[in-house]
Amino acid sequence: MLSNTLPTRERLREVRYEIRGELARRARELESQGHRLIKLNIGNPGAFGFRAPEHLQRAIADHIADTDPYTHQQGLPQAREVIAAHYRARGLPQAHADRVFIGNGVSELIDIALRALLNLGDEVLLPSPDYPLWSAATILNDGIPRYYRCRAEDGFLPDPDEIERMIGPKTRALVLINPNNPTGASYPKALLERLVAIAAKYRLLLMADEIYDGILYDDHSFQPLAPLAGDVPCLSFSGLSKVHRACGWRVGWAVLSGDPLRSGDYHHALDLLGALRLCANVPGQFAIEAALTGGDTISALTAPGGRLHASRAAVIAACAQSRFLSLVPPQGALYAFPKIDTTQLPGFDDYRFALDLLETEHVLVVPGSSFNMPERDHFRVTLLPQAEEIREVFRRIERSLSQYADRGGARHVA
């Protein structure tokens, strides 16, 4: 007998995206029942009262009459030239507008970049924990994710020797997320230089997710990868969504650098896939020049006295005072990634904890295992709420963990 249900792609069963998954769906059900939730699952500045800078808004408004037609599949020529100039100023002299691709956010460009690269069974080296879109896009483009560990005891930095041992005949790319989501680690120059050397030795494509490049704390610095890569093919991703608080505009870009002869076919593949989706959102592209040549609007938020700095400090203090939590302080990005001391909490499971926290304390966090790490003893929170709300969240988390400890671990067992 034929099934009455429509078949779906089988590889979707391998994909997980808990940031907007079952927990988020349960949260919507609770809200529909009248419960007020504190949702710390998504790094979405506009949902927490942040606005895109006014000069970016004006740039779109001033050009709205020019936004009706499709534009070039790689993006508005003037916007691509501004992006190229931005990367030249960062130390990448070969950056050129013809090698800039603008997309509907970095998410679309990650999918296109992997689709242009991978054949069936090709492998991509990804960090664990990762931003799970990278794993999903690898799987759905018929690749195989291979995870190199970024452990809390190492400051969530990768081990280049481990990465090199993982490389095989099907390895095609090495992905770096810097500053890192979910951990907040910012990679030092010496580490990046070692990873470039590995990519050069094994002829890998470097893929650098640098969407949080301007969000840094306590004098930590950001080192872009492409200037260190030289002739090694490197695709650098960034956009307006985080540093410029314009997530809903869906404006991201990717800059292809390295030896143009070696990456020529890949460049053409990216161009073809960009043409098939016609073009990216046109109105938002008119804000790129204002964003990259206008004033710095993020540093005041991350410096002492700024809202993001205060929220980060609240997380650090709450974890330091906790009976159960430890934290590697985030150096950049919009998240903290606390660890639970499971020696005090037998049978602990991060997903069951997150679900119980949602049901009993009305707080939504993301379990650490959702970021493709084997341990089930972390969770991620965004730093976007006000500091006082952060403190309230961690009071509820501590209460939930204390109750769990008092019960001897019976709850939260998967």
Give me some keywords for this one.
14 strands; Aspartate Aminotransferase, domain 2; three-stranded antiparallel beta sheet; single chain; alpha/beta; 414 residues; Aspartate Aminotransferase, domain 1; globular
Can you walk me through this structure?
This protein has 2 domains: 12-41 and 304-406, Aspartate Aminotransferase, domain 1, CATH 3.90.1150; 54-293, Type I PLP-dependent aspartate aminotransferase-like (Major domain) (Aspartate Aminotransferase, domain 2, 3-Layer(aba) Sandwich). The protein is 37% helix and 14% strand. The chain has 15 helices and 14 strands. The strands form 4 sheets. It has a 7-stranded mixed beta sheet, with helices on both faces. A 3-stranded antiparallel beta sheet has the order 10-14-13. Helix 4 runs parallel beside helix 5. It is globular and about 65 Å long. The mean pLDDT is 94.
Calculate Rg over CA atoms: 22 Å
Reading off the top of the CATH hierarchy, the class of the largest domain is best stated as Alpha Beta
| Strands, count | 14
CATH superfamily of the largest domain: Type I PLP-dependent aspartate aminotransferase-like (Major domain)
Morphology call: globular
Largest β-sheet summary: 7 strands, mixed
Put the structure in a nutshell.
The strands form four sheets. Strands 2-8-7-6-5-3-4 form a seven-stranded mixed sheet, sandwiched between helices. A three-stranded antiparallel sheet has the order 10-14-13. Helix content is 37%, strand content 14%. Helix 4 (105-117) packs parallel to helix 5 (132-140).
